[in-house]
Design brief:
mainly alpha; five-stranded parallel sheet
Length: 745
Amino acid sequence: MRGHEHIGNDLSGTVHGFVVQAGSVHGGIHVSGAVAREEVPPPWQLPPSVRITDRTDELRALEAHRDRAAEDGHPTLAAVSGLGGVGKTAVALAWLHTLRPHFPGGQLYADLGAQAPDGPADPGEVVARFLRALGVPSGQVPPALGERVALYRSLTAGRQLVVLLDDAATAAQVRPLLPAGRCVTAVTSRRRMPGLSLDGGHVIHLEPLSPEAAVELLDATLADGRVAAQPEEARALVLLCAGLPLAVRIAGARLAARPRQGITSMVRALSEEHERLEALAIEGDHDVRAALDLSYQGLPPTAARLYRLLGLHPGREFGVPVARTLLGGNAVEALDALHDANLLVDVAEASGGERYRFHDLVRLHAAERAAQDESGDDRAAALFRVGHHYLANAGRAEEIIEPGRACLEREFGRGVEPGSVAEEDFGPVGGQTAAEAALAWLERELPNLMAVVRRARPMGAPELAWQLTDALWPLFPRRKLYREWVEAHQEGLLAAEEAGNGEAACRMLTSGALGRLATGDHAEGLAMFERAAASFLERGDALGHARTLNYRGLAHQRLGQQDRAAELFALAAAELPARGDLRAGALARFNLAGIALAQGRYESAAVEAEAARLTLEAAGDTYNAARAAGLTGRACVGLGRLDRAEAELSAALSALRAEAAGFEAAHVLGGLAQLSERRGQPRQARQFYREAVSLYGSVGRSGSAEAVGAKARLNALEPPEAEASPASPPTGPAPSGDDRDEAGT
């Protein structure tokens, strides 16, 4: 396995949210205890509203509920339920958009995917997206759901904002996503959700439109006088549409495209289709299916084929490049035809790219048409083209983010050539770097990418699973997407083993085990590293086996087995340079120095850390070189070499701040506090400890042993006018690591 780095200690994300400000202190070190929060523009995520008809009573009831909640000083929670296509989201949007002048804190939106092919959205991931939208950098989003929810509630407690949770599966899925304070939350679901009443929710169930309201909607859709000229035919048509706004709009769009056609012809067509489409009915929506089938039959041939092929797309949303990959040069024209027929829904995209999704019933209908009108070979070829589209573009993103990383061989099978897939737009937006834009694309497309990973083996393309998982590596640790990290590598490992690809299996084991360490599953991580080590030996890969020495050392260290960890780090420090990997050998020496520091062997810690720093600097690894300098500084405090300690710690702090490495910077601040205690400067020590505690909290690590120790020392120090006693010896680095680093492979 190649291209990984060492997992050492936690690192924050880019400095967009919590930052540390500086002021002059003793010794030329410029820090202060204040922590500021950068202003972040409010999010405005609600999709645009659409015309609604005959929902005055429902809107009045929602607003009355909000008034009562405001009078009582409570947050507002409302749930809108009803049949698919009845207009739940449209009603919620119509209400929430009117509230914007009264809620300047912004708007949050999430599609909870109750009908999604890969299952409902995970509340933890939705909360993480909300936190990022509210200005929390990705690296500072806590790993655990409870911590994420606590931070989300803290950030919304004093904020006036509205939240739309669309297509919820259960009340349990919704509860972690409810904001605090006097915010307004609307939930839509096909299911009634009486459970939300326990949370103060007001539940409204939407029934289909009355015939009169449906005729009004049809008239607004056509806007050409045909409804007034043929009132009885219009009423018959909306009755066949079962009063569902989706069906009325689809039928209206078909008629609007044929201005010379009378409404009678549509009534006749729907009546004739009704019996034939019984088998396609879902939840009793027979007439919606008939309307969809008629709309499909009226499409131009290229648009009809794209409709069928997009019905095979494994995820919920897709962009224009996916359509181009499936259809070629006529894709944009075909997409326009589908959109004009109300068969596709626009999805708001901050980067400016066009994205679409099917309504759930429409997606199911498109898949059924593909099963009927496309051969098995053509359906398989379409799936392969989609899968390799995502693989090729994920590979491009990986090269931009980590240009020096050696990846597994990327193969394009089943006649799919790399040049046959359309390129996604990674163009930077709003001051982004190229790497940030590529990372944003990976994160946005993650549901689709994971859907391809899950489907690769069943569709006979196991190589897609491990190759795509490997290409996704830059995303998982940077965005701390632990659930997807573990799941993707589990599936990639099964696929690699099924195909007998030993190299890919080793990569899935080592990369996946690093995810286990990141989630605290240290025993399973060690077992996976041991399996990889045995496989490397069997395959005669001496360098790969040497790298697992460092991995296994990390796992033993996390398990509290320091002596065994030290043995493995020492072996790695000797073998890796001999095998040609100087940087990985230096990281092993750094790990060895950390254990020596924790055991109070300060001279050994200083020697190993300094040697590691020199090699890491030569390799251009400024981040890990700064970590090594900080460790040297803490060792020098223990040795009483206070001037050297100050120089090392000051340099390390400056470099780690430049890297936005909050967790490591907090370690260095703890070392500076210990240095101040040794110098008899309790006031200065308190200032450093205070800043360290704040920084630990800002990166979601306030419960770590290091943060608890810093807080205890802060509380133990006497008041400013009193003299503090000399500090206790410094402690070693945290056992939990920065998820970007992987032991130097």
